Amino acid sequence: MGLLDNFEKGLERAVNGAFAKTFRSGLQPVEITSALKREIDTKAAVVSRDRVLVPNTFTVRMSAEDYDRMSRLGPALTDELVDLVQKHAASQRFQFAGGITIELQPDAELSVGMVQVDSQNVKGQVAWTPVLDIDGKRYPIIKGRTVLGRGSEADIALGDTGASRRHAEVQWDGSRARVRDLGSTNGIQLDGAPVSDSVLEPDSVITIGRTRIVFRVLAQAAAAPRREPATERHDMNGFWGPAE
Questions:
Q1: Given this model, what pLDDT does residue 222 score?
Q2: Which of 27, 9, 89, 23 is nearest to 63 (CA)?
Q3: Highest mean pLDDT: which of 71-80, 178-187, 213-222?
Q4: Name one Pfam family in it (predicted).
Q5: In what order do the strands lie in the sheet with 101-106?
Q6: CA distance linking residue 227 with residue 230, whole number of Å
Q7: Of the candidates 3, 56, 10, which has an alpha carbon nearest to the alpha carbon of residue 214?
Q8: What's the whole-number average pLDDT of the chain?
Q9: Are 126 and 238 in contact (CB under 8 A)?
Q10: Residues paired with residue 45 on neighbouring β-strands, in sequence order
Q11: Do residues 195 and 215 lie in contact, with contact meaning Cβ atoms separated by under 8 Å?
Q12: Residue range 8-32, pLDDT digits in tens
């Protein structure tokens, strides 16, 4: 099974869950995934023996009707697409000049079900955005501690009777993450093994009761700094590539 097949199966699971009511007809998320992959592969430029540069800024154009349905999801779909682009580039050992940006736009000239992708290479700083993926929803993690549990005092409330009121916390220092049990009744598992305190690697799975929580780190374009007069632009310094 190819890499794109794995991507599409992962996105298909999301479609069958939280996205199911939105995507019954017209353009499908997996078709956007395929179009993004083709755009990356087509625009890959060999800079040197160890450096193949690919676009990092994408504009995905579709019919107004398809755009309306996609827009109902807010940032969830875009985050998923950024994650898939990031993984595809890492698997091919491609590199980006900055963080990944994907923007959806309506196009009156496109009919329902059609998609076109425009891309460019934009240098800039990367904002590493950690998120917890729970039942098809994405919860950004703020720097510091994020508490998960069944109680109202938890930062992320879990509707799971197997969860304690303050069950566990995810710590993020800006570059690394940990998960720590807070003395819960049923404990936690990380990638199927019981733990009390452990480092979190990207795409690792925390299990609390019957709830499956996926930790992800998205490489997104950093917010442009504000300048006077009110104009914004990216810092042109810096370079990053997929982690080994």
A1: 62
A2: 27
A3: 178-187
A4: FHA
A5: 101-106, 57-62, 115-120
A6: 6
A7: 10
A8: 81
A9: yes
A10: 53
A11: no
A12: 555 444 443 444 444 456 888 889 9
CB atoms within 10 A of CB 42: 11
pLDDT attached to residue 25? 63
CA–CA separation, 80 and 83 (whole Å): 5
Compute the distance between CA of residue 236 and CA of residue 98 in angstroms, rounded to an integer: 9
* Residue 120 CA to its chain's centroid (Å): 20
Rg of the chain over Cα atoms, rounded to whole angstroms, equals 19
In terms of Cβ atoms closer than 10 Å to its own Cβ (0-12, 13-18, 19+), residue 208 is buried
pTM (2 d.p.) = 0.56
Q: What is the enclosing helix (H) or strand (E) of 90?
A: helix 75-92
Which residues lie closer than 8 Å to 16 by C-beta, 6 or more apart?
none
Residue 159: burial class (beta carbons within 10 Å; 0-12, 13-18, 19+): exposed
CB 198 within 8 A of CB 190: yes
Which residue(s) pair with 208 in the sheet?
211
- Burial readout 16-25 (b: 16 or more C-beta within 10 A, e: otherwise): eebbeebbee
To 10 degrees, what angle do helices 3-16 and 29-43 make? Answer: 150
| Measured distance CA(94)–CA(43) in Å, rounded | 11
Closest by Cα among 154, 159, 136 to 208: 159
Closest to 101 in 3D by CA, of 138, 140, 61, 56: 56
Distance CA 59, CA 63 (A): 13
